[in-house]
Amino acid sequence: GIYSVSLTVTGPGGEDTAIETDLITVTSPSLPPIVSFVGEPTAGLVPLTVSFTSTILNSIDSVLWSFGDGGSSSDLDPTHTYETVGTYTVSLTGHNQYGTDIATLGSYISVLTPEAVMADFSAAPLLGVAPLTVSFTNGSIGTLDSVRWNFSDGGTSTQLSPFHTFEGPGVYDVTMMVHGPVNSDTSSQEDFIDVYDERPIITSIEDIPNDQGGQVLLRWDPSGWDGPVGTTVTQYALWEDYSGEWISVNTAMANQSDSYAFLASTFGDSTSDGVHWSSFKVIAHTADPGVFYESPVDSGYSVDNVPPQTPGTVLANLGGTGVELEWGEVDENNFMYYNLYRNGEIIAQLVDYVYTDLYTGGQVPHYYRVTAVDDVGNESDPTPETMVNTTDLSWFINIRGIMMGGESDLFNFIGAADEATAGFDESFDIFEPPASPGSFLSVYFPHPDWELELGDLFAQDIRQNIDLSDTMHVWDVDLTANVSDSAVFLFDMVDVPNVPIMIEHLQSGERAYISDSTWFGFNMMQDSVYSFRISIGDTTSPTLALDDNTNGPQILLSDSTHIFSWILDDGNGLDSVYTYFSRDSGETFEMISGWDGHVDTLAWVVPDTTVSYGYVFYVEARDYAGNWVYDMSDHVFAIAGDSLSTFVGSGWNLWGTPMVPYNGQMDENVGDDIDGYWYTYGFTDNGYTFDSTLALGHGYWLGIMENADIDVLGTPLDHPHTAPLTIGWNMVSNPLVLDIVVDSLVYTKDSESKVYADAVTDGWVNTIYGHDSLGYSMSDVLKPWEGYWMSVLDTGITVTYPIHQSVSDGEDRQGRDESSWMISFEATIEGAVDRTAIIGVAADATDGFDAMYDIAKAPNPPGGDFVAMATHHPDWESVLGDR
């Protein structure tokens, strides 16, 4: 619809009203119709007129009925007459602008011939108090030949409309079957007749749980005259039999409840000696004292099911004659005596709260508990256990198992004693008893290796007391039960050494550390054996030392297999070993492999890469107790592949390759990477050569017009490289993919070797120059891909390029004594600098050539502009020239 809205406001100045006409428009929901229908009657003799009623949700524009006999209607609630015998399906179709819905009821209308019968009946009254007489009226239609009634109380009738009396209370079904000339039909009514007892009926007498007896809860159903049929009953009285005399013990007003309950006292409780029955009856009273209804007598019993309080904590002391025990007294009226338990067995029943246990023999620790028992046999919860060590055991662990269903095995001991051995000791080791009848849980220590006549299962297994700092005592423990249930296992430890204690589930390999009062639970399957291992001891870590092949510095070749090895040892055996590698000098690590047991080598497939630095190898080892040790490479590894590249700037470059080329032709290695002009010079016999070959460790002048990236295919070196030197100037390059500290170079002559500084001092070599875009400089480090001038003062000398191990044993050329001084010169032109010219004095220098101090000038570079500053000494006649 369309709605107008008005708003009236009132204030100190008066009131005002605003009206908005046709402000709100509410439209029907955009939903299709939902249709259903009923018809009455749905069965009858021909002709049969049926009235149909439709129910429609949401809006409706039109309906269409189909009556199953060819007839139809567009009325909402039509009437239709069936003229022909048969069974008909009826449908109703509803339609609006949003859709259509159809409701169909199959075989809904049954039209019978005039000779047919259809059963129907009624009755009155439908409820009452027994005995109840009911009049039944036959409402069947058609030609009836015979009728049979069944009243479900054992009674039947063939009368057309009988009377029937229901003698007892109950709810009764009634069925009538009629027979005609052409058919039979049955009509049934379930829970049709409701007959009540005029007496109240006691339904239950129950003991009150968790009380100390003396009362029961009694329930009864009301008299039929208390609500269902009438309200003449006004109250109920509860009577109890006391030695043959009925005594009224309680009353309650009638209030037409479905049931009633009394809390009734009893004159005695049932005990373990026998049942004490209490008899009751309920009487329903009316306003007329002469009219009342009495229930049948029923009986029940009460029980004291509240145990007494738990005694106070047990105090125990190992005295001269035995274990002296005392506990807190129980002060309750119905207390009778105490049960004193030792290791789960009753050793005394007494009314006093002190006791001396004279049994101190054997090698089993004593666990004591006390309970209180009342006069009906209820037993209290036990006191917390108190343990007294009456044994010669140095230390022990009690392994206790309890299942949720109550099965338990609480006293199973492992431990150590000075006099015990690793084998069977009669004084300490105790056999597991045979399994008890019924359901059981068993914890035991198996020893089939002992081959003893009484079996191979033990409840106590004691070993020799030894130092466990670098060794272990190990016990196997089996758990089994003949029922499936959840179980909890607890470890009670006494004087156990301060060493690791570990339990391992042998089937799964799972391990965990345990300590005093540790517990764990799991589900046990019937007749399955669960095997564990308990290991105690070992606080010493394994020892680990890496072999040289596991320490750096080293160069590894891509896709090769490198053997890492190390030395491991542990007094109790290794449990696991793990290896890792780092790509970032030890900042982060990735696992390579992990093994169980003792492993001391690894064949590692080196990753495929071009060139990579900063690899570190890491080894970690653990023993069974969890002690661990680790070590890693003291220097990094480098990994190099067979395809390496470098950037070369335009101009003249002093360079070389750090690998053995697959193809030694310069054009194959350089020409394929440079589109424009390029040229190379080598240096032999103190002169430049047009060099067309590319060799490891050689230096070259490479001139190019544009920047380029040069790649070389070949084999990098994974070991130090030794090369011969000629007297004079040698153009060399770093043969390794790693930097080489100049002070690490080793020179050899006539089987005598010297590091660089000593070779300079002794006049074998003079200096090493590097070159960059500005000119020469003396080099401290040899870089991969770079060439150098190396000056040699003698014949028969070789140089060894080590894998980046620096030394500092030789003397430095500068700062030898305080009386020395020097002046450094720098000569500069556009695009070139000379930074190598130095003059000075030293106390031990001479006027001639001093290998320790005087440095030959490098040959002039080829090509474009350069500047060179030097002193001239043709009088020295040096093989390195006169500059």
Overview of this structure, please?
By secondary structure, the protein is mainly β. It has 7 domains: 113 residues, Immunoglobulins (Immunoglobulin-like); 80 residues, Immunoglobulin-like, CATH 2.60.40.10; 103 residues, Immunoglobulins (Immunoglobulin-like), CATH 2.60.40; 81 residues, Immunoglobulins (Immunoglobulin-like); 148 residues, no CATH class; 98 residues, Immunoglobulins (Immunoglobulin-like, Sandwich), CATH 2.60.40.10; 234 residues, no CATH class. The chain has 2 helices and 77 strands. The strands form 20 sheets. Strands 38, 39, 40, 41, 42, 43, 44, 45, 46, 47, 48 and 49 form a 12-stranded mixed sheet that branches. Strands 51, 53, 54, 56, 57 and 58 form a 6-stranded mixed sheet that branches. The protein is elongated, with a radius of gyration of 56 Å. The relative contact order is 0.04. InterPro entries: Ig-like_fold, PKD/Chitinase_dom, PKD_dom, PKD_dom_sf. Pfam families: PKD_4 (PF18911). This is PKD domain-containing protein.
Number of strands: 77
Per DSSP, the total helix count is 2
Largest sheet: 12 strands, mixed
Helix content: under 10%
Quick rundown:
The protein has 883 residues and is mostly beta strands. This is PKD domain-containing protein.
List keywords for this structure.
Immunoglobulin-like, 2 helices, elongated, PKD_dom, PKD/Chitinase_dom, PKD_dom_sf, PKD domain-containing protein
Helices and strands in order:
Layout: E1 2-11, E2 14-25, E3 34-40, E4 43-45, E5 48-57, E6 62-66, E7 72-73, E8 79-82, E9 86-96, E10 99-112, E11 117-118, E12 121-124, E13 127-129, E14 132-138, E15 141-142, E16 146-150, E17 156-157, E18 163-166, E19 170-179, E20 184-196, E21 201-207, E22 215-221, E23 233-242, E24 245-253, E25 260-265, E26 269-270, E27 278-286, E28 292-294, E29 298-300, E30 302-303, E31 315-318, E32 323-326, E33 335-342, E34 345-350, E35 354-357, E36 366-374, E37 386-388, E38 395-403, E39 408-409, E40 413-417, E41 430-431, E42 441-446, E43 457-464, E44 472-481, E45 485-494, E46 501-505, E47 511-513, E48 519-524, E49 529-537, E50 543-546, E51 554-557, E52 561-569, E53 574-582, E54 590-596, E55 601-605, E56 611-623, E57 628-632, E58 637-640, E59 643-648, E60 651-655, E61 659-661, H1 666-669, E62 678-684, E63 687-689, E64 700-704, E65 708-716, E66 721-725, E67 728-733, E68 740-741, E69 746-749, E70 752-755, H2 756-761, E71 765-772, E72 775-778, E73 781-782, E74 787-792, E75 797-801, E76 821-829, E77 832-841
Parallel strand pairs: 4-10, 13-20, 26-30, 40-43, 51-58
Antiparallel strand pairs: 1-2, 3-5, 5-8, 6-7, 6-9, 9-10, 11-15, 12-14, 14-18, 16-17, 16-19, 19-20, 21-22, 22-25, 23-24, 23-27, 27-28, 27-29, 31-32, 32-35, 33-34, 33-36, 36-37, 38-39, 38-40, 38-45, 41-43, 42-43, 42-44, 44-49, 45-48, 46-47, 46-49, 50-52, 52-55, 53-54, 53-56, 56-57, 56-58, 59-65, ...
